[in-house]
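Page 47, continued from p. 46.
Same chain as before, 261 aa.
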Amino acid sequence: MIRPLRPTPSTLHPGGRKLYQQAAATIAAAIQRGDYRPGQRIPSERELAEEHKVSRPTIREALIALEVTGLVRSRHGSGIFVVDNPPNDTLMLSLDIGAFELTEARRLFEGETAALAAVSISDEDIARLETLVADMERENQEHVSGEHADREFHVVIARATQNSAIVGVVESLWDARYSSPLCAHMLERARSVGVQPRIDEHLDILQALRERDPVAARAAMRDHLARVIEGLLQATEIDTMERTRAELEVKRTALAKRGAV
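Result:
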């Protein structure tokens, strides 16, 4: 059974506002009050997550939202800093949906879609999916902008269910990746560090569909999208770079002292 998707408690504030929006608004207010000065590095994800009592992915979405609105900027290896001339006007923090939230919804919905497709998919659909996996691999090798073959792969599976409502939902979830400024920014950051469609995982989905196995198809799709979430977490990681930079500075200082003896 396909259950309706509902916001989870970790996604929405009791008042209906998304948690990343609430956190972003609080950090923005602190910047505008002068708690964080222009050019100053703001606290780490871990510190902010503890302060706001939310998850680190929520804080990461909040920080990326602030970056999209031009209030902060990231410095690779250093962290997140307030811009030199932060805007004083009211920030537009309602940037729709983040990539974590969207991919979680896809994982729930597309897992059931794959299971339903497995019992009705045609040989023509299987052949089309095989072609799309080859196209995906070529796009990866040629660093083609966008995810044309990847999107079509998932839409073909939705069409195989022979349910137009399911096709509409899958297409709308994919289109939200580009219509949401926050989601598009996060995905662009992931692509900038080399994140690409995962061929092996799509082959696992294809094999389950080829065998007309709904249980395996559901599991393969859910596993694939769980790994997409993990890849986004790694691609947008900031604290790891901060720790690496700090460790290098400590070593550099120690070596300088020894060299001065």
